[in-house]
Amino acid sequence: MSPIMELLVMMLTLSSVVSQHMDWGDNPDLVEESDPIQGREHIMRLVALVGDSIDLECQVLSASKPVGKILLKKDGKIISQTEDPIVETNQDGVFIEAHLKIDIITEEMGASTVSCEYSMIADSIEAEFHVHTLQIDASKEVCETCDGDIELIFKETNGSSSTTRSANVYRRIQSKIAEMTNVQSGEITVNKSKSEYFLSRPIATIRDNNAILAMKPKYIIGGTVVDSLDHCKCGPSSARTNSGMSVDISMGIAALSAIVAICV
Length: 264
What we know:
This protein has 264 residues and is α+β, with helices and mostly antiparallel strands.
C-alpha cells in the first residue's frame, strides 16, 4: 500500500471514531468524579435518596449505518426496555435515545451500577449508584408535646466505598436534602469521613412531608426504634388547624347565642 493510501485509510478511521459518541442525557443527579482515575472517565455518579425514581437517557450519535442495538444493563444483567428507543436517521448518520427507568430506588441499590451499550460501538457508558438513607431522632419530650426540633440524619449506604465519593457527590446530595427539607445547604452539617449529613427541623414540618415519608425513614424516639412518628401525641398539621377552626367557630356561635338571649 502506498504512503498516500495509508494516510487516507488512517484519516478515514480517525473520522469514524470521532463521529461515534455515547453519553448520558442531562440529569442533575448524574455527576462526574471531581478527579477521575484514568480509564474511569466514562463512569458517572448517580446521587439518589431511597424512594427516588430515575429516568436516565442513553444517547448515541453514530455515523455508521444500519442502526445498531442498544443494551441497557443493571449490575451486568440486561433490563427489558418498556419503551422503544427513539431513532432518527439522516445523511449524517444515526441518533438514538433510549430510557433506563427505575420506579423506586431502594437501600439495597447502594452498590448497583447501570450501563448502556451500543452494538455498533465497542464502548459503553456507566453510572454508579450513591444511595442515601434517612434516620430521624426525636426526644420523648418533643414527641409528647409535638413542639421542638428533631434531628434528621442522611447517610450513604455501605455499598459505596469512600474512595469513590467525590466533592460533586457531596454537593449534589446536600442540594437534594436542602430542597426536600426547605433549608439552605449551609444549614446542613456534613461528616465527609462517614458520608453523613445532619440537620434539625421542627417536628411539625416533617410529619407531613411526603418526600421524607417516601424514604421510609428509621425512627428513633427517646432511644427506642419505632415504626413512625404517629407514636407522638399529635396529629397532622391540617387536622390541628381544622380542629382549631372548629373550636373557634363553636365558641363564636355560643357567644352570639348568649347575646341574642340577653337582648330578647
